[in-house]
């Protein structure tokens, strides 16, 4: 398993968390999504490193935006 951490801008409530989590769970190979609302950090656990463009598109589809690059 691989974990990647992303910074997501614009999340302010539990609905935001659910929207981002739902979209990211729809990506191929994603096993788990954890969102830390106060920091805006989203940890994606997947079988292989997720495609960066697909992650950005999923976050955008949820109505939010990746901030800068990714962590780990």
From TrEMBL:
InterPro entries: Heavy-metal-associated_CS, HMA_dom, HMA_dom_sf. Residues 2-67 form the HMA domain. PROSITE patterns: HMA_1, HMA_2. It comes from the Bacteria. Gene3D superfamilies: 3.30.70.100. CDD domains: HMA (cd00371). Transmembrane segments: none annotated. Signal peptide: none annotated. Keywords: Metal-binding. This is Cation transporter.
């Amino acid at each position: 398993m691989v974990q990647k951490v992303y910074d997501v801008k614009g999340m302010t409530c539990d609905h935001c968390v659910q929207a981002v989590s739902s979209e990211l769970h729809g990506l191929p190979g994603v096993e788990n999504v954890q969102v830390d609302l106060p920091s805006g950090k989203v940890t994606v656990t997947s079988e292989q490193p997720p495609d960066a463009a697909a992650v950005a598109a999923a976050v955008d589809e949820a109505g939010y935006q990746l901030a800068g690059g990714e962590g780990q």
